[in-house]
Amino acid sequence: MTVTAASPALLHRVGERALDWLDTNRDRFRITPEDHASGLALGERLKPVGELAVNTRVLFREGVAGSRQRERAGALLDFAWRELLDGGGVLAALQAQEPHTPVALEVYVPFHESGYRHPGLEEMIAVSRRTRSWAAVEKPPNRQLALLSAERRIGVRPSASFDETLRRTWLGQLPEPWTVQLHIAYDITHTVFHVTNWGERPDALPADIADYLDRYLPAWLETWADLEHWDLLGELLVVDACLPRPALDAEIWERYAGAQAPSGAMPVHGAMPEGDPGDVFDLLHHPTLVAAFASAMATSRALG
Questions:
Q1: Where is the DUF6895 domain (predicted)?
Q2: How does pLDDT run across 172-183, given as a tens digit for each residue?
């Protein structure tokens, strides 16, 4: 079957609209006093800020943003560091409170890669990494891979074997493709993100894994598009862009773009939710961040 590739204009438009929505709603990413009072809540509230940083970095790295989009993304990244994270102070506080959680490191890494620094946080992470507990805390292979990726990206020796950990993930074992349920599908996408450094090094995917994805990803894309699960579909579209021969399927991308609201927001599943603006934001920020990520990666591959 011949697949028609989506136009770069369509791919770019999805990301431009998503960035507009993220920038318009940037104050809703703020950490509340209630979040600060609970270490667990703080860790959960920090993850969207880290995802925001990853997305802006990908946009700059792939070189597909126009001058206005670059300026807006740069201002958004600076806002996240200075306003949302208090120049890294919020991450340092979490690291002091929970010295063996990887959350502070994972959120810090994309800012570090973009030139932001907090020496005190780095010193605390270095102390924590010298303990046996840092590596001993039990994590599923996919989460362990995230930590190892963060260590590698910040320039320190990984605390375990990256390749061995990859082979213990669901994707690394190349299971039967019809067993892909929702949580497994997200494990697949994040394994690809950690191996390729969020799409920077597609060639880092081992050949057998790349071949496996090349064979079965089209069916997964079709399935989750039919189910209108836009959040997962967006992540799978990023995986497609990480393959040696990305499809950039026009039909799938048109359905994905059609789910995006005029404001740029992307729903998780089905139609756009309604209700309290804060509650709606909590439902929309992740799929909209994913839309910006998918757009940057796919536009770069289309133009390349």
A1: 16-296
A2: 999 999 888 999
